[in-house]
Amino acid sequence: MNIITNTVKKIGYKKVWVYIIIALCFVASVFFVTHNYSFYEGPIAKVIKTNLESTTEMDDMYLNEDRLFTQSIVAQLQNGEEKGQLITLKNEYSSSGAYDQEYKVGNDLFVSIDAKDGEGPELAGTIKDVKRDKYVVIVAWVFIFTLLIVGQKQGLLSVISLVVNAVLLSYALDFYMSTSGISLVWICGIAIILFTVLSLLLVNGFNEKTYAAIIATLIGTFSSLFITYLAMWVTGENGLRYEEMQFLTRPYKMVFYAGLFIGSLGAVMDIGITMSSSIFGLYEKNNDISVKALKASGLEIGKDIMGTMTNILFFAYISGSIPVILLYLKNASTLGFTLSMNLSLELARALAGGIGIVLTIPIGLYISIYFVNRRKGRT
């Protein structure tokens, strides 16, 4: 008992209570998503038995080989008027698994009840989708625990900032969908200001370092969008393929610009706070450091992070297109056509973010130096 008491005193009672609250939230959330069937309107069935009925080999005109499977499933309904009853389901899936998958015992499935079945179980139905919320919650908690272990207080504030930003973005998009005549770019512009201010203030607090990062982030982001818009206007948007937005009922160009806005913000914000923290860190270690030395050190730091952040943007945008690129290539599309169809918008987003990164380095440097000089003047 004394060991526990001493450990609690060493950690601090406030931290212990925070850990207890987080642990309780984890247990409660996992328990909820595991037993929340009644909160869904559509019927959900848990797989209790599977049987592989048939296997078919196939290939297409481009000699792409695949294997098709037919699976019979017996599941138990978990909600609705038929709760507890058994239902038979059919599932056809392929070894490639592009649009289908094999279901196993324990999987929760969204189903539609079709009719009565005279053989075996009483009900028959069709599979609509898989209930994945418990897996999403577990992965989210792994992410949160990693942030808390590495970042501790800053990690907790980062989680809060992420949740606040997600809520703000959802409200911004909902407001856009429920109104007409208001450009999504303007809505995202206001949202970006709120994202930047709230995120940096929550994580870094109210101080000159944060103020410098906020100003640098906003100037860098808006400058990036302006230069990108200017370049697209001069070139007539030649080479951009908007086919992936063909089903939008809203102006697709405005949606694309809004995506540029949001996409470049994260990288630009990271550059802004990195430059600000570096300059203020140099000043706090040596209050007599000259402006010339600050500029030289800041530019060296900027050069070091510029290449890595640009590559991060490039890989983040391109990675999502790899499955579609492989699909095009496997179906005898030429490399040039495949890349132009699938990477034109992604490359434009990556380049826009790269412009923001490069611009934010000198902007963040000189704004941080300005605030350092102000602090010098007060001492």
Question: Would you spell out the secondary-structure blueprint of this structure?
Answer:
Blueprint: H1 2-11, H2 13-34, E1 44-59, E2 65-77, E3 86-94, E4 108-116, E5 123-130, H3 133-151, H4 153-178, H5 184-204, H6 208-235, H7 252-285, H8 291-319, H9 322-330, H10 335-378
Parallel strand pairs: 3-5
Antiparallel strand pairs: 1-2, 1-4, 2-3, 4-5
Helix pairs in contact: 2-3, 3-4, 4-5, 5-6, 5-7, 6-7, 6-10, 7-8, 7-10, 8-10, 9-10
Describe this structure in words.
This protein is an alpha+beta fold and 379 residues long. The protein is built from 10 helices and 5 strands, in the order H-H-E-E-E-E-E-H-H-H-H-H-H-H-H. It has helices at 2-11, 13-34, 133-151, 153-178, 184-204, 208-235, 252-285, 291-319, 322-330, 335-378; strands at residues 44-59, 65-77, 86-94, 108-116, 123-130. The chain has a 5-stranded mixed barrel with strand order 1-2-3-5-4. Helix 5 (184-204) runs parallel beside helix 7. It is globular. The mean pLDDT is 82.
Essential attributes:
379 residues; 5 strands; 5-stranded mixed β-barrel; globular; alpha+beta
Our measurement of the CA-to-CA distance between the termini, rounded to an integer number of angstroms, reads: 51 Å
Instruction: Give the count of helical stretches.
Output: 10
Radius of gyration: 27 Å
Q: Please state the oligomeric state of the protein chains shown.
A: single chain
Q: Helicity, in percent?
A: 55-70%
**Mean pLDDT, nearest integer?**
82
Q: SSE string, helix = H, strand = E? A: HHEEEEEHHHHHHHH
The percentage of residues in β strands lies in 5-15%
Q: Which segments are poorly predicted (pLDDT under 50) over 5 or more consecutive residues?
A: none
Number of strands: 5
Spatially, the strands of the biggest sheet line up as: 1-2-3-5-4
Structural class: alpha+beta
